[in-house]
Design goal:
Order of helices and strands: EEEHEEEEHEHEHHEEHEHEHEHEEEEEEH
Helix content: 10-25%
Shape: globular
Oligomer: single chain
Largest sheet: 11 strands, mixed
Length: 379
């Protein structure tokens, strides 16, 4: 990515790798950027979306037409920086209005060097991605704008998401601790593959002291903290490249330590159990995805950000090296696997975000389910 100063009036062009282009105006920093074009269906929560490490190397298209209405505050970021490679909106707010707002979204994007584009038909772009699938894209503004053939060649030279190993680029370099709120009941080792700030907070609310470990952590590092449970976080990239996290999870499963994984952690559990993973056509991203918990029959509205999924049978339990496993949750839009559960060991995972930042709180019970596993193991 290359950027220059802010220039909302500068012309901008978005070029997809299949050659389709959209012309608009610069939003945020001026320059050029590349990534995988994906769309998010959330009408709110743009600040949490931008700072979610799972969006690393992705250009996010917002399907809601009005973005930036509430500005940017200092309380809602899910990490220390914006992670999206680029940002695409139709009608950015001219003036933010919210009592917590400290600056405009345009100013924040500019300050962090995030190249964006506004004033394009995001509905047409979203329909194109639904039909053709997520693909590489470039946004060019100001002096970076050139003839379309030159820009298209740049886009097609950019790396693809399939085969990308990215969790190490977003994870913490050093272990840190999030203390329990109130009385400490449990200790959890959380493997940071791109963790959001609200996730350890949700565990801390339940009396859990969370030790957040780097993606490069070893089994010895995990058990050095004396964990009652182990958590594997969300994160970016292709799970087929995540050999170290898979080996690490297998070491945890072998010791029958209570285990909970979300998003990328769900895909890691799938691989650890011997299932394959595959790239979805355009993925699930947003805060309004319907998922059924097959253990209760309840339907949850959930927050998602994933472009890969686990390939596991939906109709019956499977035999794995760690006992029987079953699909515990399923997406009601397309029957994609949204959760796994081991029947003979204390381990489960879901493909979405139970911390719900942003999003509905339907899935908060999953942290309670994790607590129950640790209580059962302790008893």
């Amino acid at each position: 990515m290359t950027t220059s100063t802010r220039g909302a009036s500068a012309p901008a062009v978005l070029v997809l790798e299949d050659g389709r282009t959209f012309r608009g105006r610069a939003y945020g920093a001026v320059g050029e950027t590349f990534g995988e074009a994906v769309f998010s269906t959330g009408m709110t929560g743009y600040q949490e979306t931008l700072t979610d490490p799972s969006y690393h190397r992705q250009v996010v298209v917002m399907t809601a037409p009005h973005i930036g209405n509430t500005g940017v505050n200092d309380e809602d970021p899910e990490s220390q920086r914006i992670w999206v490679s680029g940002y695409v909106v139709r009608d950015p707010a001219r003036t933010p209005s919210n009592w917590r707002s400290r600056r405009s979204l345009d100013e924040e994007l500019t300050a962090q060097g995030v190249v964006g584009i506004s004033g394009i038909d995001t509905r047409a772009l979203t329909r194109h991605l639904r039909e053709r699938g997520a693909m590489r894209v470039g946004i060019f503004s100001g002096a970076a704008v050139a003839d379309e053939a030159t820009l298209l060649a740049k886009v097609r030279a950019a790396p693809q998401m399939k085969g990308a190993d990215l969790s190490g680029e977003v994870a913490t370099a050093e272990t840190y601790v999030v203390p329990a709120i109130g009385t400490k009941k449990f200790t959890v080792a959380a493997i940071d593959l791109g963790i959001k700030g609200m996730t350890p907070h949700r565990m801390a609310e339940r009396g859990i002291e969370v030790h957040v470990l780097p993606a490069t952590a070893t089994a010895e590092d995990i058990y050095a903290v004396g964990p009652d449970g182990v958590f594997f976080s969300n994160g970016p990239g292709d799970p087929a490249t995540a050999d170290h996290p898979v080996s690490l999870m297998r070491a945890v499963l072998e010791r029958s330590t209570p285990l909970f994984g979300i998003c990328f952690g769900n895909q890691i559990l799938g691989r650890a159990l011997g299932f394959g993973t595959f790239k979805l056509k355009y993925g699930h991203r947003g805060i309004n995805q319907p998922v059924q918990d097959r253990t209760t029959g309840k339907v949850e509205v959930t927050a998602h950000n994933h472009g890969f999924a686990v390939d596991a049978p939906l109709d019956a339990p499977s035999d794995t090296p760690f006992g029987r496993a079953e699909v515990s949750h399923v997406c009601l839009n397309d029957n994609v696997v949204e959760g796994l559960r081991l029947l003979d060991r204390p381990a489960f995972s879901v493909q979405y975000h139970p911390e719900a930042a942003a999003g509905p709180h339907d899935a908060a019970y999953l942290f309670d389910r994790f607590v129950s596993l640790m209580e059962g193991q302790r008893a």
